[in-house]
Write a structure and sequence with these properties.
Helices cover about 70% and strands about 0% of the residues. With about 475 residues, it is mainly alpha-helical. It has one domain (about 1-474): Amino acid/polyamine transporter I (Up-down Bundle). A three-stranded mixed β-sheet has the order 1-2-3, with no helix packed on it. Helix 2 (about 25-50) packs parallel to helix 8, helix 2 (about 25-50) packs parallel to helix 13 (about 275-310) and helix 7 (about 135-155) packs antiparallel against helix 15 (about 385-400). The N and C termini lie far apart (about 60 Å).
Length: about 475
Amino acid sequence: MQYSGLTKPLSLKPFPQFSGWIKALGPGLIWMALAQGSGELIWWPYIVAKYGLGFLFLLIPACLLQFPLNYEIGRYTVLTGETIWQGFIRLNRFFAFFLWLLMILSFLWFGGFASAGGTALAALTHFPSNFSPRGQSLFWGLCTMILFFSALTFSKVVYNIVEKFMTLVAFITLLGLTFSISHPQVSQKIPEFSSALFIPEWPMDRIWEPKDATKLLTAITFAGLGGFWTLFYSYWLREKGTGMSRYFGRITSPITGKLEVIPETGFIPEDTLENRRNIKQWLSFLFVDCSIGVVGNLITTLFTCLLAYALLFPENILPKEWEIAVVQAKFFEISWGSFGRILFLVISAAFLSDTWLATADAVSRVNTDIVYGLFPRARSRTPRFWYYCFLVIATAITSITIFLNQPGALIITSAVIGFAGTVIFSVAVLILNHFYLPKFCSFLKPKKIVSFSMLFSVAAYFILMILYISFQNS
């Protein structure tokens, strides 16, 4: 029996049994590690270092705001095996095409993360010695692109290398930050810092500059991932074989008896007691996995903000331009001296460069997915072929765009475009899970608390967009 969708039918299948926590965990860790590349390390420390604790009360809501959207994106993939972009195609092919163009425009600039990582390596090595700081940063940015491009190209299963590398960087950084905040110079600031998380510190310690409105928007919206990056969570769940994704193979590994990845085909479960039990287990896992990403990201951001307030704010030292990932070396230097500075710069380089790694991989997956879904002639080639074509294109484009501006400006450009996309696609995610799927399987309708949380998230992003426009016109 089949239900006719807007593309190919959604077929009935038994819902796979839960694979176990150790085997299933991973996508949330990647989410946390990727989020660490901008919000924690750059923009929230910038806001705190410049304005003190005035905006800190926005941090926890900004992080938690992403949870409903992140959960709903994952929920669609868990229940159908399809990626979220396949769901957008089901809603409307022209809408999906427009959103795709917006996403492409957004990701022309993500090379800024590689050049931001390059600023750390430039400060560490001062190589090539005859280059300016800008030249050294761009040199190392290109080197990291080449390194990670090679890793993605020659790895048998790309997802595995992304998950392991990003998880390692995330945990090392979290461990180092935890040790750093125990220093007396930092720990003595904890009481006033903690109070400012819930009670706004007004008036602010320094005069507000309207030019920082975009940076504040980026800090709030990208307190976790934000923008089109949020949609990547669906692909990591798919590659991990979560829920109904068990019926699909991987794009970047040989077919091993599983179905080929056919983006227009998804599955929905029959209404049986066993399927309901399995769905409940998988959704419980999804809640925990999302929480790892969101809460882990929140904790790391709190630590970097505390360090920025204790060490950077008193001296008015800001992460900017070609030192965007350099001045934060004080975070480790306070505890370990020059060794700490070197350690932080190495981790910082990995911290930001792995954002390029995960983004290049995910963007290539999304583009492959959409081309397969929108253009039937593209299916004459394998998904693997298209993945590597788009990976080459993404590497080539970002190798050019990093020369157009300093890293912070490139990251902000990508963030603002991505924010516009968030306002649009969050409505589509709401429609998919709360109206589209339930008309085929009524028992897939989310609980009221999930619906209200998602509505609140959508409304909040819309209000943020209005506020941003108001800032820009003031």
